[in-house]
Specification:
The structure is a homodimer of 116-residue chains.
Chain A: H1 11-14, H2 18-27, H3 30-42, E1 45-46, H4 47-53, H5 58-70, E2 74-79, E3 82-87, H6 89-95, H7 98-101
Antiparallel strand pairs in A: 1-3, 2-3
Helix pairs in contact in A: 2-5
The structure holds a DNA duplex (30 and 30 nucleotides).
DNA sequence: TCTTTAAATCAAAATAAATTGATTTAATCC
DNA sequence: GGATTAAATCAATTTATTTTGATTTAAAGA
């Protein structure tokens, strides 16, 4: 019979925070928070429109979208020459408090169990 | 007669994300996440002990504690020469999802309405 | 008072992230 | 095919953050 090894020593220093670091880094910028906010308000938006909405040069926007995409906080769908970005509500809800989720959620849409 | 400029354009860009930026910046670092995790496990810890727990030079730890403190994610109490730091559970819960809060919460203590 | 210890601060160096403007890739339309 | 448009990428610069080791501040004890 095998004795269980106590699940105690230094388990804490094993905890892997790298995914959280990546996601919080993506959130740690007002420009990117605004992009997320706009995607919440407008739903699915193509880069060519987003450029005007957030008033940002295209290459700069592209850079910030990539950071959000790599963090899995937004999703991308390409249709021909256009790329449409959307908020990844599941991931945002997984990460942020209901209170905070509401900032990234239209008040009309209460369906996804985030807002109180 | 002066024509009014329509108050339409860019109302959304008025939303102030600066406090969130500060807090997410504080969270956007594995070392600081580990510090928060240790404070969750150990409750109130003085810097002199934390140095060994997170295995970090004192000045470096002091730097990271300040960032967490400025973001209101931890609190500090000085007793004589010692400084004791604690997690600010209210603020952490306000910001992070119940799921994530659990990472910064001892499983014994279910009192604060965070874990499911 | 002098010494010791804890913790914060400082300035310099190292590292990382953001911005810029130009270029590339690739899909669409004529 | 050639021109046009959308979006990503690139390299160079700028800006911000982190690390380091030394110094400072200040409380406690002999």
């Amino acid at each position: 019979m095998i004795k269980e090894i106590p699940f105690v020593l230094n388990v804490e220093s094993q905890v892997d925070f790298s995914k959280f670091e990546l996601q919080f880094k993506a959130l740690a910028d007002q420009k990117r928070l605004q992009i997320m906010y706009e995607l919440t308000q407008k739903g699915s938006v193509c880069v060519c429109d987003l450029v005007d909405i957030v008033n940002m040069p295209q290459s700069k926007l592209s850079y910030h979208l990539k950071i959000l995409l790599d963090a899995n906080l937004i999703t991308k769908e390409t249709k021909g020459t256009w790329s449409y970005y959307e908020l990844n509500h599941e991931e945002v809800n997984r990460l942020l408090s209901p209170e905070l989720c509401c900032i990234f959620r239209k008040s009309e849409n209460q369906s996804s169990g985030c807002c109180p």
